[in-house]
Amino acid sequence: MTVNVVGKRVKRVDAVAKVTGKAKYTDDFMERDMLVGKILRSPYAHAIVKNIDVSKAKALPGVEAVLTYKDVPDNKYATAGHPYSLDPKHRDREDRTILTKKARFVGDEIAAVVATDDLTAEKALKLIDVEYEVLEPVLTPEDALKENAPLIHEEYDNNIISDFGYQIGDVEESFKESDYIFEDEFETSIVQHCHLENHISYAYVDADDRIVIVSSTQIPHICRRIVGQALGIPWGRIRVIKPYIGGGFGNKQDVCLEPLNAALTLAVGGRPVKIDLSREECMIATRTRHAFKYKFKTGVSKDGKLIATHITAISNNGAYASHGHSIAMSAGTKFRPLYSFKSIKFDPVTVYTNLPAAGAMRAYGVPQIKFALESHMENIARKLNMDPIEFRRRNLLGEGYVDPLNGNKVLSCGIHECIAKGKELINWDEKKEKYKNQTGIKRRGLGMACFSYASGTHPVGLELAGARIVLNQDGSVQLQIGATEIGQGSDTVFAQMVAEVLGIPVDMVHVVSTQDTDISPFDTGAYASRQTYVTGMAVKKAALEIKEKILNFVWGMTDIPAEALDIEDANIVYKHSGEVVMPLSKVAMQTYYDTVFAKPITSDTSNNARVNAMSFGVTFAEVEVDIKTGKIEVVEIFNVHDSGKIINPQLAEGQVHGGVSMGIGYALSEEMLFDEKTGKPLNNNLLDYKLPTIMDTPDIGVAFVETHDPTGPFGNKSLGEPPAISPAPAIRNAVLDATGVAFDRIPMTPQRVFEKFKEAKLV
Amino acid sequence: MLKKISFTVNGKEVSLEVNPGETLLEVLRKRLGYTGVKKGCAVGECGACTVLIDGTPTDSCIYLAVWADGKEIITIEGIAEDGKLSKVQEAFVEEGAVQCGFCTPGLVLTTTAMVQSGKKYTREEIKRELSGHFCRCTGYQNIIKAVEKSLED
Amino acid sequence: MYNVDQYFEPETIDEATALLAEHPNLLIIAGGTDVLIKMHSGKIAQADLLSIRKIKFLETIQKRQDGTLSIGSLATFTQIANDPIIKENIPVLKEAALSMGGPQIRNVATIGGNICNGATSADSASTLFALNAKLKLQTQGGERVIPIEDFYLGPGKVDLKPGEILTEIVISPEDYQDYGGHYIKFSMRKAMDIATLGVSAICRIKNGVFEDVRIGLGVAGPTPLRCQEAESFAKGKTVSAQTLAEIGKLAVKSTKARTSWRASKEYREHLVEELSQRALKVAIKNAGGESLA
User: pTM for the full model?
Assistant: First the structure.
């Protein structure tokens, strides 16, 4: 088997479909009698529905149904895209009902209307009379943690979702051993995914009385389970179909619309009902990224070795649990394989507030903790008068590290090479020299930040993926996977993997891009940067399995032992010489039509990954700061990644470009704002939420340090999320270098920068 | 009060009666089936709904259908000829400018208009011409490459 | 679908004003980039529309014999950005036009709509204030011409009387000839954004001395405004960094900035002081003056 397509810049398998407009997304499917579903949303952040009268809405011509919490099952369910746990103690908090009689954030779902068209539906919403008992909104985690704070979910004793943490070693003892103790506090803001395609789904009851849901989801199989739980019906009665989706970034790793959508179609006798969220709704009524407050207390030796760190974290979870405390725990876990600490104490608390629910977003808690940790490291280096790069280098772990809590091993680590490469790419030494004594209005500076990440959730979560391959008569194959293409390119890398293992050209591998829970092998979906690593192994296994079956079949046909054969370029060949025995298509035809031996060849297998692989990387950034206006411009930025073997460099670069641009927005301009008294969203639209445009995005440089991880199907490790992790702290550190001002809060908007520069007497 | 309008879409003549409140986006997607035109924000902020109206890139979500009377509309479906990708489409494919694909149709159309103008664009001018398009997946890098490639002679 | 009942599209200004007189409930729509957004958000729940898009002569940009510049209210921002008359005579307006929105918006948004929307942040407004622009408003009965400063009444409110249509923006030759100008749109993003502060500075210089300085500000008060104190001070002063510094300080005095979630009063005033100087520096160069450090 020659390595000839893995590692190559193979064209995306769906590029042509997308570039011609042929690729169909959820809103592109038309059902003849499709109805429109719209949601009545609470104008209050915290309120009880005392009375709700839908009679006028129901009477409006064109309205087919109006539902309130009284009309839907009141089963509490969890919306998070996690594999189900057979152990009840390990499950996500179930605090969500399909519709609510208590509003917990501005935008909470009070009622829903089904009508013939959107204008009628909107009119109907206005005709629903709701009498609210307005309660005191709890808008900050600090308020939520107060002694007699109003309870957001009254079935619990307080507003804490969890405060489970850990300690490795003994930090108090370690602090006694330390020469210096440094303390810092940091804060990140609420941001949103802003995938171009808003959440959307439609549902109907099919001829077999099963509920069919077509949805823009990252997690079709999980979606099916959660809809079943929400409705209280067997999961096998539900079918979820996922077509092409317009991005997700973790926001579609939650089940937001589908349970309500199912309830709506049932309310109209199974007729198709579509719920198409507006951008304004999507920004507040799906999920956001948790805002975190971090306190770091770190003990260091005088020669710059990290001894211990005590981290306190407050995670602002918003109104419903969704992914809840997992985000904080992910943060507290994933930073460990990078730097050596003798002791670590991690004290997180995840808190409800009357704000939109926070959930999963690219890199799942790690951008927040890395902003804090890498800024903290920078502060410490400066106080120790040490070069910030040298300080980090001195403390890096590396290959051989075994995590004391979860047992994950670092079997490949290229972080040193990443740092060296990044330093070179940005011309660190030369520029540092050049920018030494600036006095003008515009100042430049350099900064960097490192990260570590995992590939999937083992051992915290089940990592299960399936793959099925079917051999066609012409020697081509279909690959069916439960893993979802969300733009990251998973379909393409799987095609490459199959082609590589099976010995056929990539364009003879047809990846069935749509997931259909009736047909697609089980897979929990796109998240945790797991698919190329976990599903990739299932795909590799399936390809190996089908190859073995094919060669065994040829053995039966020809009496040439399977082990003497190989497949190259869609031909069965002698392994030792490459001489062609027969085309694969000839074998395939036999498998279909031989009157005695016909047995069409497929493989169907799964991978339960009980391994994990740590990926690493670094961002190097150069900024120019306008001291007077507070505007920060990223002049140059490079990300260097160790994600093991890069399966498709062009797609990999694309992921890095996207993640870095997200990181730049996170550092400088993106922030969801809410009225501090009422909790009303102030900027839930693409104008007022400052998503960077193309004119705000600098050139983004990418490099890879390719290690080989033995646990990855092709030596590969996670890459989807990591690029979003380190840009923000690198930019913050560059601003510190340029101006001497240490920011402890992102985004560093011009207003904030102005205020801090005034404090620092720079303006 | 319905209004009768006639226009062409991708060279094909169309005549229909529309409600004055209907957007060109709705008419193209729902009435005529051109689902390649995408809805991203409905307020002309993201550019996903961009079509060419008499050659000019326009957000169809804030363009009333009645205004399309007498105009020539080009959507993404009209770019490939006889199944053959245009130079712009090829460039987007080659340069890795496509990820989730939702912003792609609008960008291909704006780029097509730039190519058709015959003008030369600097990198900064390219960025300005594309600044009415949001993309969250690509960080815009490969999109710029694709546009530069499309503009090459 | 927008909630629209009646819809008219007259082809002449007389037809349009007649319809307005007959149906006072009609809302004028041109490019639609303000009206339709307001309908989407619910600010306008339902509308009966009078589209003036077919009144072609309202798209004309011309320079009359005596040097008066006339910009039709239907001129789009793209049109203004590309127009040779604008480029040659009032390039500062070209800068302002290019800063507005993004290409697709500029392709349909009209300068008349931008003005009549009455936002202090309107990218055309501060420059038109600086250019002493006058507006021609037509009704069925006649027409009136008023200075643009008198047209803005308050946030989102303009003196567009019932039955009136803004047809033309007029700039007199003495208000722009021999002047150099520069527009700075300070915003959080370089495109698709509303100004946090808009500064339009124009000046005329002779022998290193300011003969005239005019500064129009957007988002420094509930309406666009001029900086009278700073302008009066500047007249006759030597073009120098110190003069600019003083102009900056005085410009702040004309402002009525307030703190909102977008920016604080202090920050806005700070920007006025800083950016009015930066805009003037470039305006000085464009007016043929010496570059200042």
Answer: 0.98
- The tally of CA atoms less than 13 A away on the side-chain side of residue A457 is 20
My answer on whether B7 and B73 are in the same domain is yes
What is the span of the domain harbouring residue B73?
A: 3-77
Domain end, chosen from C109, C143, C174, is at C174
Amino acid in position C83: D
If one counts the domains in chain B, the total is 2
Q: Which residue is associated with the tokens 């804490």? A: A160
Q: How many domains does chain C have?
A: 3
Q: Which two tokens stand for residue B122?
A: 């600097």
Write the CATH number for B110: 1.10.150.120
Residues A487-500 pLDDT 10s: 999 999 999 999 99
**A230/A99 Cα distance (integer angstroms):** 11
Q: Distance (Å, rounded) from C-alpha A757 to C-alpha A489?
A: 43
Radius of gyration (C-alpha) of chain A in whole angstroms: 27
Tell me the residues of B at the C interface, defined by beta carbons under 8 Å apart.
1, 3, 19-23, 26, 42-45, 47, 50, 56-59, 62-64, 66-67, 110, 128-134
d(CA A311, CA A406): 19
| Segment C194-252, tens digit of pLDDT | 999 999 999 999 999 999 999 999 999 999 999 999 999 999 999 999 999 999 999 99
**What does the alpha-carbon distance between residue C5 and residue C21 come to, in Å, rounded to a whole number?**
18
| Amino acid at position A722, single letter | P
Residue that finishes a domain, picked among B46, B77, B108: B77
DSSP result, A471-511: E-TTS-EEEEESS--SSS-HHHHHHHHHHHHHTS-GGGEEE
Q: Which long-range contacts (CB under 8 A, 24 or more apart) does A572-580 make?
A: none
Of the partner residues C192, C194, C270, the one whose CB lies closest to the CB of residue A754: C270
User: What residues contact residue B32 under an 8 Å CB cut-off, 6+ apart?
Assistant: B9, B14
Q: How far apart are CA A179 and CA A165, in angstroms?
A: 26
Is C99 contained in some domain? Answer: yes
Q: Residue C28 sits in which domain range?
A: 4-51
pLDDT tens, position by position, A20-47? 999 999 999 999 999 999 999 999 999 9
Q: Which residues of A190-222 are buried (b: 16+ CB within 10 A; e: fewer)?
A: bbbbbbbbbbbbbbbbeeeeebbbbbbbbbbbb
| CB proximity under 8 Å: B 59-88 to A | 75-77, 79-80, 85
What CATH number is attached to the domain comprising C213? 3.30.390.50
Sign of CA dihedral C123, C127, C132, C133: negative
Q: Are residues C216 and C261 in the same domain?
A: yes
Q: What does the pLDDT look like over A678-716, one tens digit per residue? A: 999 999 999 999 999 999 999 999 999 999 999 999 999
pLDDT of residue A1: 44
Mutation target among A279, A684, A696 for the C interface, most CBs of C within 10 A: A696
Partners of B124 on chain C (C-beta within 8 Å) are: none
Cα angle C71, C74, C79 (rounded to 5 degrees) comes to 70
* Final residue in a domain of this structure, among B47, B77, B107: B77
- Over residues C42-62, the pLDDT tens digits come to 999 999 999 999 999 999 999
Is the Cα torsion angle B109, A197, C76, C186 positive or negative in sign? negative
Q: Which of A493, A449, A412 is nearest to A655 (CA)?
A: A493
Q: Helices marked H in A88-204 — which ranges?
A: 118-126, 141-145, 171-177
Cα separation, B9 vs B68, whole angstroms: 10
**Residue ranges in chain A modelled with pLDDT below 50:** 1
Residue B54 lies in a domain: yes
Tokens of C27: 């809302």
- Dihedral over Cα of A512, A513, A519, A520: its sign: positive
Decide: A616 and A482 in contact? Cβ < 8 Å.
no
C195 plus C216 within the same structural domain: yes
